[in-house]
Amino acid sequence: MAALTLEGEVVWRINLDEVAHPDKILWDRGTSPIFAGGRLVIAVMQQAGTSYLVALDKKNGKRAWITERPFRTVGENGDSYSSPFVETIDGLETIVTWGGDHLTGHHAITGEQLWFCGGFNPKPERVWRTIASPSGTNGVAIVPHGREDRVAGIKLGGKGEITKSAWLWSARGWGSDNCTPAAHGNRALMLTDTGKARGMLTMVEATTGKQLWQQSLPKSVHTFCASPVVAGNRLYVARRDGTVFTASLTADGMEDLQEITIEEGVIASPVVVDGKVLIRGDRHLVCLW
Description:
The chain is mainly β. 3% of the residues lie in helices and 45% in strands. The chain is built from two helices and 26 strands. A five-stranded mixed beta sheet has the order 7-8-9-10-14. A four-stranded antiparallel beta sheet has the order 3-4-5-6, with no helix packed on it. A four-stranded antiparallel beta sheet has the order 11-12-13-15. Strand 11 (135-137) and strand 12 (140-145) form a beta hairpin.
């Protein structure tokens, strides 16, 4: 883990194995760091090792706190590549973390676990590792799980175990394995990224799961890793083969669908900066529109 200036100068560098716990995750760490409580926070969830959240001082990389996340899981289920998000819940800045068959809320200043929600894998299935991150909006977490087959709406907040009261809705058949939902207001947009339904976009009400519309992008043998991005009423989606889609979003679906190709692979999600779309391909950083 390192911090650099915009000129590329290294300010500090640490080894998480030394600051926290050794890396035991099957496909190595894939989570993104976040800013919470004035610090840099990283969540590491792993079946074979100790799962934890750690907060680092942004100026020097020194550890401020560490909280273990000791849920018992089977098979591959303890491995998670998802990233947390930050939400103000019950008046507290809260780090919401998904993985190990549980959604948890942690105090952003101290790392204390405030609440946890289970029920995602009651059987349990043994290969439900998590890649897609949850999204938060309108007091609800939109949680893709079950290796693309399932998605849930979980009410955020409370104390201790909230499993019985937190589940607002669940659905099957239009989830995502890699892609994080785009959520804002009382709406959430899910991109189905693999399987026969890959390229299908589903817009739902965040609090009820009611489908508002469902449309598909042009069919292809290629899948999706990059998450959909919505800026204003404009949608941007990048497919693994480098095809980039953009469309206007209306109450009833997509309009003015366009596509171009950057002629190289894309795994990273697009970002919108000053009205321009930046996409990191296999070989280049590309600016569009």
